[in-house]
## 1
Amino acid sequence: MGAFTVLQNHINGEWIASNATEFLEIINPATVETLGKVPLSSAREVDQAVQAAQQAFTTWRRVPAGDRIQYLFKLKVLLEEHLDDLAQTITMECGKTLAESKGELRRAIENVEVACGIPMMMQGYNSEDVARGIDEFMIRQPLGVVGIICPFNFPAMIPFWFMPYAIACGNTVILKPSEKVPLTLQKIVQLIEQTGLPAGVVNLVNGTKVVVDAMLDHPAVRAISFVGSTPIAKYVYSRAAANGKRAQCQGGAKNPVIVLSDADIATTTRIMADSAFGCAGQRCLAASVAITVGDAKQTFTEAIAEVATTRKVGYGLEDGIQMGAVITAGSKNRIERLIQQGVDQGATALVDGRQSKILGYEQGYFVRPTILQNVNPLGDLAKTEIFGPVLSLIHLESIDEAIALINQGQYGNMACLFTSSGAAARKFRYEAEAGNIGINIGVAAPMAQFPFSGWKDSFFGDLHGQGHHAVEFFTQTKVVIERWHDWTRQF
Ligand code: NAD
């Protein structure tokens, strides 16, 4: 990792060594190698970054939107050129497979592409003659300095749900990567530097709670975009709101999927396995509860158990690996403890992925795919976000019971249905209480031009990341009412 052995902050266009006294090791979860150290920066360093961003804002907001997006066009090219290297970095620090890392980068790039449409997306509207000789306009203006706080599971994609839109709208940004996976964003900010973006428009401060709190409390930070677990999302949302800031905070999830007896079981199983075990179950859109209805129970259970048993688990950089490691030793222990808790509460481990050792990576944080059968629909396991490759199976007699169970849930990130019935699909789409719905889709991740629409305890705020929502979030509306007394005179 060379120059990145001890990570630096990027403030006002310069890489600056943090004056932190505490550092955390960045660990490759498959090999358990140390990849570098991340500083836990101080509130003073956040203040320096905010001041730089505030200074940069005064000139950046005056750059025409059509010129601002030129930096994004350059960034897209650089991201494409460095895709392999970035994907490798994601896999090394985050544990997912190389194909998954490339897929994540693709979604990041799509957000850059959509944000290139901002000259049109941030247009306002107007009405002539709202009263005699009086015109009224709505224009969108940038907010100023905005903070973006990221989780560990998508080190490249998640900052891009916000950052391209924020800067294209004329704001300046402070990025805080997850302390578990800070290498990817360092590399991305290096690429941003290569675009020639003016100093201070994008700043990066490494750290944990101290950095987050400093952003939440800084009077010059106008808005906060956060993605992470529900308790922290709730905390960030409350503290940001108490300080008068705009906030959009995406939280955790427990994603249910209904399998009806008229679904194509072979296709459903393949898609469901990718959803439940892809990224080792560490997606906020991972299917975690499969609810079979009627005759689907036996065929789906047998098929998914087979796929779970044969999934190739290992180091994500190696060829043919279908599932990588989970993020930390603590995470592995927690997942295994929750599996045991499920068994203690009456579930059967149809496929048990605990205590797995991968040849050559015996110290790695691996949990193999796990299927728990006969899970109590109202028990803890059916409600708790496990964030690992564990699929719980529940059987119910009707789609109505299944939708009712989904709607009782705390979270509302995603709900999916597998069926060949259009009527069932419409009913589900209409009634299911979740912000992202999949019909015969296992990971209902909205494309960049759509909002990432979590509901309930999966989202705190009103405007989501991506697309038009991001443009609205990163701009404030100004209404101008205008009259010129002498406009009818002869010129
Ligand atoms: P996390 O909540 O532990 O951390 C997220 C961010 O908050 C990190 O940058 C971290 O440094 C910071 N943080 C942690 N503790 C804090 C505290 N006490 N005060 C202030 N800041 C704090 O989340 P994670 O483990 O990195 O990510 C996994 C979680 O994120 C899962 O719950 C997953 O469902 C969720 N997630 C949600 C979405 C979504 O779109 N809804 C997307 C990805 C991940």
## 2
Amino acid sequence: MGERFGSVCIAGIGYIGLPTAVALATRGVRVLGYDISERTVQAVNDRRSPIVEPDLAAELAGVVSSGALRASTQPEPADAFIIAVPTPFGPDHEPDLAAARAATTSIAPVLAKGALVIVESTCPPGTTEALSGWLGELRPDLRMPHEHPDDPDVNIAYCPERVLPGRIMVELVSNDRTVGGITPRCAQRAKELYEVFCEGEIFTTNARTAEMVKLSENAFRDVNIAFANELSLVCDALGVDVWEVIGLANRHPRVSVLSPGPGVGGHCIAVDPWFIIDAAPAQSRLMRTAREVNDGKPAWVVDQVMGAAAAFAKPVVACLGLAFKPDVDDLRESPAVEIVHRLAQAGVGTLLVVEPHVEALPAVLADRDDVRLVSLDEALAAADVVVNLVDHSAFRALPRERLADKQVVDTRGTWR
Ligand code: SAJ
């Protein structure tokens, strides 16, 4: 057992970094969360959660009040550093590691001998080794594990998160984890850090394998959702109810088809498979096709809505939900946003958007006269067509008689 971690500095206090910061701080570690967003830093220091996630706000308020968690726009020296910044993709779906590189550059000056550096951001295979190289260039006075595996000054590991938005505070503690070190000793140190709050089993491996494990998990889910989405197109073409087909097929003991929807959103499943496809394009044909099937679903939904609206002279279309999945406020890569945007561009009519988890429309919709954010009651009172894009609890609970005189496009099968 190595030395205990008294302090941890987390680069990026977003959907993953902030819950991790809170989990460590509630267990007696001094945590500094730093972020380039002054708004995020201010919110945390004011004891307010900048994101909607069950249980996060209450736990955050407690650890900030006690002084266990602070936020800043600058990193500080610590026993361990966790990099949890976004890793998006560029115009050709190539990984964009600029934020990870910037975070690495910012922690380099405060890194001291004996520190542990962990990457949590989802990354293409080989990134953690590359990061060890970047740190080596920035701090030639410190021995990095890729060059000095037997006696490094700094341990470096890749520890992907696998928490489900909406259940982050529970899954952060209960899920098993895989941690991959540049060396076995790096992995062991990383395991010791996660043991502070993780009650699941922690498996150790090398960094490249751990990177691939993370990408494989999300690519697996993407391929399975693509199957459900493709099935919905096939069933529609054949005049069969896809929800009934799936419900009955899933009574087979070895079949478990997922749910079709308006497309796949969020910053994980819609992004991560591209890192595999980019790294091994010739070998990843199924994953590429799955991405294309899922990315093609919003256009299909738009066609359905246009068809339903065509029956009205001046259609009013209520679009229920903008988030990428139920009961969260996260609009990143959301197919619902894409669908509303496409409908507006197609000039379908008046669009009344209902999203109980946001206070304003996203930038792409904000300046349009034909798109308004309204309450559920207002939308239902005026709508000719109701489009269900996200199965938020409030929409699931909607009495069916309120939809009786509407044309309904239910992308989630919520109201069957
Ligand atoms: N979706 C469907 N049909 C389904 C399931 C999901 O259309 O049957 C859609 C959702 O509506 C959403 C998208 O897929 O738009 C992704 O949602 P999700 O709930 O499947 O996953 P995420 O993105 O919230 O979280 C995933 C999880 N990965 C896996 O389940 C393998 C989570 O455990 C990861 O930690 C997270 O990605 C991440 O951060 O990588």
